[in-house]
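ARCHIVE CARD
SHELF: 3
SLOT: left
DATA:
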Amino acid sequence: MSSTTERTFIAVKPDGVHRGLVGEIIKRFEQRGYKLLALKMVQAEKKLLEEHYKDLAQKPFYAGLVKYMGSGPVVAMVWEGLQAVSTGRKMLGATNPLDSAPGTIRGDFCIQTGRNICHGSDSVESAEREIGLWFTKEEIVQWDHHSKAWIYE
């Protein structure tokens, strides 16, 4: 990977899965030119969710968030590409969907913070941590960057 090529963790939350938005979210990342390296649908266990959201443990909404994220299936994904973390966050839109611009995933599909349909890593470091929580190394496709050109290489 080049110095600006990153990996990010994106998860479609239970409300996004329930509403049938998984394909639309994947489509937007693919159309943008990102490579999908890993994908799975899981019923996340409480322990995983508590670890994933541990930085929010002191917030009043933490228990409700963990309960909600365990209430239905989650589609977890790893995406790779140029500035994947920051661009992925821009594509998702603001955490509060009412602050999200039209054209973003949240701006187009939701209106409530508690049901904002997706999660995206907020830094390269958190992406690495989150990817490690949700996927084993063997579950992540390793593209051969030298023999197979990609869209922006």
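SLOT: right
DATA:
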Amino acid sequence: MRPTCDLVILILFADALCHTWALFSPNPEKLLSIYLRLYNGDTLDEFVDVYVENATMLLPKMQLSRKTAFYIHGYTESVDSNSVKTIVGGYLKRQDHNIIAVDWSKLAASPYISAISNSKDVGITIARAIQKMVEGGLSREKIHVIGHSLGAQVAGFLGKNSNFPIPRITGLDPAGPFYNLVIPHLEAGDADFVDIIHTDAGIYGTRLVTGSVDFFPNGGVRVQPGCPATFEIESQEDFCSHHRSWVFYAESLTDEDSFIGRNCSSYLRFTTGECDNNDTAVMGYATPPNTNGTFYLKTNSQSPYGRKLEGAEGSL
């Protein structure tokens, strides 16, 4: 059978992308610029920074009986970005986790094609650091990796290249451009449990359903309630829907049943009430690790965004 024109184009594109990927691969010195920020107090101003190669130096400063959350920021961000401060702030309010923010800003600040080509090596580098921490006494069973946008794809590579199964990876609107096509992406096999929250699917976020469970608040696409319908490209308004994923997750840290989704095959069926008798599941921090499938829900347009069980009633 002769290949179709579309298939030939896809093969040529994949080959070109692989060559481009190799061209932009980071050098070891840039990978060593990655550092880990452990928040060791009650506020965002209390932290300890160590380069990724010295990750085990954090262990004496951690409470190893607690769970440990690693948060990986997205494209062009750093540990000082609003997304990181918001997520970390939520964990600090809980007072029951070690929270470590991963800063790969020198690699994430590159042009997008370069940043995505860095994502695999960044994931491998972080995986090796976590492995050393586990060898030094960190509990493997208590690790939770969370990533937003390109950081979620880094988390996928982390899971793919870990020498032990990561218990849970949460993808907050994983980056879509190029990952929708031929580049390996965050998927269910990257951890024992992979939960994904989609809020800008098909634009800055992936449209693929690849997690153990995928949540689609308000259909998972822009314009999310409360976000502007008109905006300049690459403005904060443009990113509003994409950022809703980490906003929702942060809210779930302090109000665990704030977001409840309904299992359904499509948002249309959900909104017409056809799925109102289907199973429900909590979205966000407290998602049970045995949850599987695709879930839809509605949110408010401003904080608090969660509508609890009302948000799972599609016909309302």
